[in-house]
Amino acid sequence: MLNFSDPFSLLVFAISLLFALSIHEAAHAWTANRLGDPTAKFAGRLTINPLAHLDPMGTILLIFFGFGWGKPVPVDEFNLDNPRRDSALISLAGPGANLAAAILGSLILWLTHRLNINSLVTVSLMLGLIRLNVILGIFNLLPLHPLDGNKILTGFLPSQIASRVEKITRQHGILLLIFAFLPIFSGQSLINIILTPMIGLTVNGLLFWTNF
Asked: What does the pLDDT look like over 27-75, one tens digit per residue?
């Protein structure tokens, strides 16, 4: 939960959020374009400008619950040579870019520590970037529609099984996602119980060797 009375923390969070969302969606767009679909390119999504990628609902969820998403990148599967495989790769690019950015952030933290450049602004910003990118990357790997994990899962399953899974997740994915956010176990949601340890382990693992 954000501390809205701390302007510095809010600024760090805003910068981290905008960066994480932008590279996530830009990675989708870049990968789609590379695989033969220029739809996102023509829609102006080949950019890290956050204004092109913000989704109102996804942003609100990130601010108040710590999990969310950006505006979906348009993909026309008719332009892809192998629609199922390529759609999975396009979906994987977003979380992959976030986790790569988190790794890069930990490298920058290590370098600043080695060079004794441990300013409050630099450290706070890198920590924010690492955490937000890990959150966005791991959350979007959940195999629920409309998250990236659903496309990744169905893209690599046998076609008959994939079609059944996709039908179920499209019909019930949103309901399952809403249910996952409801506080049902000692005031905690299923999302928190499953993802919080994973996020914590990933962030701590990235920070372990940086001396932070």
From this structure: 999 999 999 999 999 999 999 998 899 888 777 776 776 666 678 899 9
Domain that holds residue 86: 7-208
Residue 95 identity: P
State whether residue 47 is helix, strand or coil: coil
Three-class SS state of 200: helix
The contacts of residue 14 (CB under 8 Å, 6+ apart) are none
CA distance 96 to 90: 10
Q: How many domains does the chain have?
A: 1
Cα–Cα dist 9/1, whole Å: 11
| Residue 70 within a domain | yes
Q: pTM (2 decimals)?
A: 0.88
Whether 176 is in a domain gets the answer: yes
For the chain, the first-to-last Cα distance in angstroms comes to 22
In a domain, residue 2? The reply is: no
Q: How far apart are CA 39 and CA 105, in angstroms?
A: 31
Position 1 in a domain: no
Q: From the CB of residue 60, how many other CB atoms can be counted at a distance below 10 Å?
A: 11
Question: Which residues have CB under 8 Å from 70's CB, separation 6+?
Answer: 21, 22, 24, 25, 53, 54, 55, 58, 59
Number of neighbours of residue 117 by Cβ within 10 angstroms? 11
Is 25 marked active-site? Answer: yes
Q: Exactly one of 25, 37, 148, 166 is catalytic; which is it?
A: 25
